Amino acid sequence: MQPAERVRVYDLEERSYLFAKRVRALVKRMPRTMSNFEDGKQVVRSSGSISSNYIEANEPLGEKDFLVHMKISRKESKESRYWLRLLDLDGNEELEVERRDLIQEALELMHIFNAIIRKRSA
Prior knowledge:
By secondary structure, this protein is mainly α. Helix content is about 80%, strand content about 0%.
């Protein structure tokens, strides 16, 4: 990803979408191993689930529905971070840098969702 593309997006729907796109780009470039195949499927699913649940939260049936979807987005952010950590990138420094950036982004998304949940639950 080019430096200009790493600018922070303040629209959370777009930011979570871009996270999922970046995860998919990483998965396409990582070594083809049995474990990466399985872990790659998991990280693709969890990263996409972050933004899809955020979209659902923005069209809630009620406050409880909103909180449920936000909690799922937070959970999927944590899960994405986990699967990213498991990927075997075979020491490829470029992929390692992207993974570190993605792990940091997953952590930041998790903190954002947590703050929203705390504020709405208070």
